[in-house]
């Protein structure tokens, strides 16, 4: 009997989502899967799970969109060309969150205690950033300097490209201590700041008060915000966050919070520069173990989910400053965050930074492939 492509597709993605979970009880996964059965019905899929002690349970899922001929990469490309898709989003992206939820429902109602591997990672991230917030003196934070310094080219570029944001609604994802949130508020934006860390959110609120501003705060991870239905923003901004999370899932979540024509602004480190990678190996105390600087396949996800994408790359020859900090000044990368110090000491480094930045501009114009050797990339994406 011929296989039903849509049913096989559902089974494949369900089992892929299942692999993201670990189990607190010593159960044999193979045995569980042997009692799992899938049936395609007119408006969805029924999953049946039969355990001898508990009896048969049924679960119905309908919040999924399927391609007529499956959802392999080749099938997706072919069907897009033929116009045979059910939706403008491909299955692999639009169903990802729903499959994870489906696994949770089946496992919980089947009486199995589970722990998602992701939960452990989030706990580590939260504790790390709570501790960071506890050890910061907010009175020493110069919000204007952090956003306008010569050695903060990413933020200068972002603010210049955004232009007038007065009166616009803006979501700062992974706000940290709130340096960007407060600066956006100073420009007249109505700012909502989210973070996984309660400590960081408290610090962001206090920093805003120090500057006579008010921001809304919301505790959430970038993969699941939990806002009320209908919550939308003109601008979604996130800095130094995507390399901590599931990039595609975070992009889908942030895209869902944008108004039509809204803008997503992100900046993150890239994976490929050997100098920065050597620094990462040494600076273990100021980083979390889950970090994964962006690779080319991550950058392509923006084009996959947004209609307009612009990238700007920073720090190539200008990384000489960090080499000087490490090799000549002998500064311990585990006792200070270089990327913070280079901004707080911007007046000291500006005479060297400006000519190096000009050299970077020329190099990247003449040899575009070298862009991937830069430290950071800023990406503007429109919905």
Give the structure's gist in a few sentences:
The protein has 383 residues and is α/β, with parallel strands linked by helices. It is built from 16 helices and twelve strands.
Q: In the CATH classification, which architecture of the largest domain applies?
A: 3-Layer(aba) Sandwich
Please identify the structural class as seen in this structure.
alpha/beta
- Separation of the first and last Cα atoms: 43 Å
Strand order of the largest sheet: 8-7-6-9-10-12-11
CATH class wording of the largest domain? Alpha Beta
The biggest sheet, with number of strands, parallel, antiparallel or mixed sense and barrel status, is: 7 strands, mixed
Please characterize this protein's 3D structure.
- With 383 residues, this protein is of the alpha/beta class.
- It folds into two domains: 5-112, no CATH class; 130-382, 3-Layer(aba) Sandwich (Rossmann fold).
- Helix content is 44%, strand content 20%.
- The protein has helices at 5-18, 29-34, 73-82, 91-94, 96-109, 117-134, 143-148, 153-162, 179-186, 198-210, 247-256, 274-282, 296-305, 320-328, 338-344, 346-366; strands at residues 21-23, 36-41, 44-51, 55-61, 114-116, 169-173, 190-195, 216-219, 233-239, 258-269, 308-314, 376-382.
- The longest helix is centred in the last third of the chain and has 21 residues, at 346-366.
- The two termini are 43 Å apart.
């Amino acid at each position: 009997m011929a296989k039903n492509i849509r049913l096989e597709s559902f089974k494949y993605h369900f089992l892929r989502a299942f692999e993201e979970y670990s189990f607190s009880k010593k159960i044999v996964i193979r045995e569980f899967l042997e009692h799992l059965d899938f049936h395609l019905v007119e408006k969805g899929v029924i999953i049946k799970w039969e355990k001898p002690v508990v009896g048969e349970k049924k679960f119905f899922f309908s919040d999924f969109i399927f391609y007529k001929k499956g959802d392999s990469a080749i099938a997706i490309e072919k069907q897009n060309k033929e116009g045979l898709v059910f939706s403008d989003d491909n299955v692999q992206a639009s169903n990802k969150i729903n499959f994870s939820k489906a696994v949770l429902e089946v496992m919980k109602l089947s009486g199995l205690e589970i722990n998602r591997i992701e939960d452990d990672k989030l706990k580590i991230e939260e504790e790390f950033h709570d501790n960071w917030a506890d050890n910061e003196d907010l009175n020493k934070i110069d919000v204007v300097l952090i956003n306008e310094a010569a050695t903060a080219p990413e933020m200068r570029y972002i603010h210049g490209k955004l232009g007038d944001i007065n009166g616009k609604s803006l979501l700062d994802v992974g706000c940290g201590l709130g340096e960007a949130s407060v600066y956006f508020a100073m420009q007249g934006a109505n700012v909502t700041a989210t973070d996984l860390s309660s400590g960081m959110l408290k610090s962001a609120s206090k920093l805003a008060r120090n500057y006579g501003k008010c921001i809304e705060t919301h505790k959430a991870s970038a993969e699941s915000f939990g806002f009320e239905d209908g919550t939308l923003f003109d601008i979604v901004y996130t800095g130094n966050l995507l390399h901590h999370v599931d990039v595609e899932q975070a992009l889908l979540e942030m895209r869902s919070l944008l108004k039509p024509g809204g803008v997503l602004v992100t900046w993150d480190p890239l994976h490929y520069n050997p100098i920065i990678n050597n620094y990462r190996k040494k600076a273990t105390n100021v980083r979390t173990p889950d970090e994964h600087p962006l690779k080319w396949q991550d950058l392509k996800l923006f084009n996959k989910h947004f209609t307009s994408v612009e990238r700007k790359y920073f720090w190539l020859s200008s990384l000489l400053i960090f080499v000087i900090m490490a090799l000549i000044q002998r500064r311990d990368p585990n006792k200070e965050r270089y990327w913070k110090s280079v901004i707080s000491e911007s007046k000291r480094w500006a005479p060297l930074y400006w000519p190096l930045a000009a050299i970077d501009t020329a190099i990247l114009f003449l040899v575009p492939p070298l862009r991937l050797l830069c430290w950071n990339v800023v990406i503007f994406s429109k919905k």
